[in-house]
Structure of AB hydrolase-1 domain-containing protein:
Amino acid sequence: MPAAVPRVLLVHGAATTARSWAAVAALLTGLDVAAPDRPCTGDLDQEVAALAGAAEGALVVGVSGGATLGLALAASGVRLRGALLHEPAAGSLVPGLLGPVAAAHARGGVAAFGSALYGAAWEPSMAPADPGAVARDLAVFRAFEPAAPRPGQGPVVVSTGGASPPVRHEVATALAERFGLARRVLPGCRHFVQHEHPAVLAGAVRALLVELPVA
């Protein structure tokens, strides 16, 4: 009997939509890939519930706020095959992480927020059409507190861009030390990895799938 095609769920963060995953998804040929637009409700439980069906039994791949939601999924009752989470928030473990982007949002709205978070490669057209979505996401991710993955989850890996600032590496270290999560560094990458270096992220996804037990 042929092995089941591995399922991959791509989860976007604040100020982006499922469109941000187009290049990565195109490189994950041969896999069962889902990249939904999140509802951006402003409620963590509702965001997790919206992803739960697609996440069940899948490798969850998230960037930024999508990685934060991946941590929440791993701590929930949803059974994950594994997770690759690029530069999530870490709550009180690294409390100053989101301060600069929150200040940018207060100063200049979505445009300033997106530029502060993702850099020059981000454009306002990449944000959701709903003008309140970013503010709701920001509130959720600033209030987020990480927890240990539930027993029985597949491996949860936190990745950091090799070119990302020290605070991002501090987050990965804090999560590894507190919860025993594995760490990976993606060479030459920064926060907006799915847009700036899709081949590196897609390669990391395929490498992790090779390491996972057969479903």
The chain has a mean pLDDT of 96. The first helix runs from residue 22 to 27. The chain is about 45% helix and 15% strand. Residues 24 and 198 are 5 Å apart (CA to CA).
